[in-house]
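From the pipeline queue, job 12 of 40. The input is one protein chain; the requested action is below.

Action: predict structure.
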Amino acid sequence: MSIVRFVKSLFHPIERFIKSCFCGLAAMTVQLILFNILRLYIHEVLANAIAIEVAIIINFFMNNRFSFHEFRLSKQDKLSQWLYKIGKFNTSALGSLILQLIVMYVGIKLFGSTLIIANLLLLIGIVLGSFSNYYCYRTFVWKAS
């Protein structure tokens, strides 16, 4: 093994994690915007649940294209393959979704519901769930080595 290949093999997981974080950051931005629009009309927990699901779908397509591109689905793959992988991705994000909703619910009960508190709770839930999400994506959805 050449030294270049060895160094690349050491940094590839870090590179993949950084790419996944950028995808998550984009999805988080959409989640924050959608959450803040929806919270004007419906309860924060429900607004958060809807915003999370939209972010999960965006995150799936971005990770499929960029972070895990060597394992990605393509336009030639069957719809059933896409639905199966999206289902796995959504299932793997379930822990983060539950964690975010618990943080939001408990935080609102303890601290009330203001714009700053609700958004701070949202960010705390996202950060707490991001590490478990990446692990699940890598080992369960795209099965990266």
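Job complete. Residues 15-141 form one domain.
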